[in-house]
From TrEMBL:
It comes from the Bacteria. This is Negative transcriptional regulator, PaiB family. SUPFAM superfamilies: FMN-binding split barrel (SSF50475).
Length: 209
């Protein structure tokens, strides 16, 4: 990934926080026929290695878990908030007319060797962790025990587990860091005026940056 110095994110806890907040990964692997991608939720286990360990699962019918090239790193892409940026929001536009549209966003690329796991106990623990991560926001969280045991057993037989011990992380926050403070404030004001959840999310990230 191309990352200008002013857009680089090196803080591992910050990158892990993005993985937790935006857990739907684009998992890319190399196969004899070329690249293969799936979109799956993944769980980051920060405590298990320096860069963390990612766990997820695929439907057994999804061919990605078979015949992939284990000698080539797998890539999991996690995309945070993003938004179109209008040049009309830059005060400098009226002065020099040297501004064009762009896009602000945050993203993390996680690389590592992919391991396939078919152990039922491992899969059950993974599903419990995945469910807990997303259900804990509710007053009455759903758990695996709320479903019929034979139903869960059948579902587990229909999936395979995936684990990536992350060997390297690349983080990028493109939040108008290349503009001066006046233009950045203009972008924040423009995003706030749009008053959408995504525009507010990006303006808040810009304030923090």
């Amino acid at each position: 990934m191309y990352i200008p110095k002013f857009n680089a994110e090196h803080n591992i806890p910050e990158m892990h926080a993005l993985l937790r907040a935006h857990p739907l990964a684009t998992l890319v692997t190399m196969h004899p026929s070329g690249l293969f991608a799936s979109h799956i939720p993944m769980v980051i286990h920060s405590e298990e290695s320096e860069n963390g360990v990612l766990r997820g699962h695929l439907a057994r019918a999804n061919a990605q878990w078979e015949d992939f090239d284990a000698s080539v790193e797998a890539l999991a892409i996690f995309t945070g908030h993003d938004h179109y940026i209008s040049p009309s929001w830059y005060p400098s536009k009226a002065e020099n007319h040297r501004s064009v549209p762009t896009w602000n966003y945050s993203v993390v690329h996680a690389y590592g060797t992919l391991r396939v796991i078919e152990d039922a106990s491992w899969l059950r623990a993974h599903l419990a962790a995945l469910t807990h991560q997303h259900e804990q926001q509710f007053a009455a969280p759903w758990t695996l025990e709320d479903a019929a045991p034979d139903y869960i057993d059948a579902l587990i037989r229909g999936i395979v587990g995936l684990e990536i011990t992350i060997t390297r992380l690349e983080g990028k926050r493109k939040l108008s860091q290349n503009r001066d403070e006046r233009d950045r404030n203009g972008v924040i004001a423009g995003l706030d005026a749009m008053a959408t959840p995504e525009s507010h999310a990006i303006s808040e990230e810009m304030r923090k940056a």
